[in-house]
Amino acid sequence: MEEAFQQLVDFGKRAGLEARKRNITIAIEPQRREECNIINNTAEALRWVEAVNDPNIQLMIDYYHFSVEKEDPAIILKVKDHLRHLHMANPDNRVMPLDWEEYNYAPFFAALRQIHYQNLIGLEASTTNLASDGPKTIALLRRALGGEP
Questions:
Q1: Residue 20 and residue 100: Cα distance in Å, rounded?
Q2: Are strands 26-28 and 83-88 parallel, antiparallel or unpaired?
């Protein structure tokens, strides 16, 4: 595992150099253990970002993976200087989040508000009715980042 991690660090250093040349940021996404065998949580992603030590190598959080891995939202306070992007979905069936009561989103969004998160949130979720669910999801996210809905 440590050898693989060091290989990823070496790759990250090379990728960071190329990212700087192109004025882009690469954000590592921790993935649940069912999908990946390394960098499965935010702490591991932070360890990698710090080991690479390149301003164009940062991290993102996918709420689905974050929730499945049962991460503590307090980690968000530790990664605030490196957090560049979020993916959002209701972890139950990986669908669009529609209602504050459908899942325990409160601790996650409280931590985001505490760090004054202002970057983008992408939806990586399914729906059977985007015209109906889209506005509900946007309203939920706006309210969640602005304060308790």
A1: 39
A2: unpaired
| Coil/strand/helix, residue 59 | strand
Amino acid letter for position 28:
I
Contacts of residue 74, Cβ cutoff 8 Å, sequence gap at least 6: 111
**Considering only CA atoms, which of 85, 115, 110, 86 is closest in space to residue 100?**
110
- Mean pLDDT for 49-69 is 97
| pLDDT tens digits, one per residue of 100-129 | 999 999 999 999 999 999 999 999 999 999
Local structure of residue 147 (DSSP, 8 states) = S
This prediction has a pTM of: 0.89
- pLDDT, residue 146, reads 86
Question: How many angstroms separate the CA atoms of 107 and 130, rounded?
Answer: 27
Kindly state the helix (H) or strand (E) to which residue 89 belongs, with its residue range: none
